[in-house]
């Protein structure tokens, strides 16, 4: 199960890194033109950039604490925060009728919930 948790955390970290880089460094107007990025037209630039920075922090928080052995409890805390972020993403895409993205966000939510459950519980880094 430890391996499955590492794989899930790694996948989520890759998703968070990609989303964080795009939201932080790609202009909002370009993001709005991408499939699934139309929601950015409904919010301010600061909101999009803030989400991007949070996603970059999530990418780090899902991996580095455990790898470095510094505050490894941050891994399941980050995963739990990712669950909350995905609920917001599902609501946003659902309101726009983008149900394919709702399902994708649900898959990310499930992975994050698995990591949070596993790292808070049976495969905790805190022994």
From TrEMBL:
Presence of the UniProt keyword Transmembrane in the record: yes
Keyword Methyltransferase carried by entry: no
Domain of life: Bacteria
Main location: membrane
Subcellular location: Membrane
Keywords tagged on the record: Membrane, Transmembrane, Transmembrane helix
Membrane topology field: Multi-pass membrane protein
Transmembrane annotation, as ranges: 56-87, 99-120
Entry protein name: DoxX family protein
């Amino acid at each position: 199960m430890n391996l499955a948790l590492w794989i899930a955390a790694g996948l989520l970290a890759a998703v968070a890194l990609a989303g964080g880089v795009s939201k932080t460094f790609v202009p909002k107007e370009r993001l709005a033109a991408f499939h699934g990025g139309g929601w950015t037209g409904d919010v301010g630039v600061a909101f999009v950039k803030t989400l991007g920075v949070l996603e970059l922090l999530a990418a780090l928080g899902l991996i580095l604490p455990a790898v470095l052995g510094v505050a490894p409890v941050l891994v399941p805390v980050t995963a739990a925060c990712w669950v909350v972020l995905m609920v917001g993403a599902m609501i946003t895409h659902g309101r726009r009728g983008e149900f394919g993205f709702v399902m994708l966000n649900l898959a990310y939510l499930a992975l994050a919930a698995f990591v949070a459950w596993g790292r808070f519980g049976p495969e905790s880094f805190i022994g």
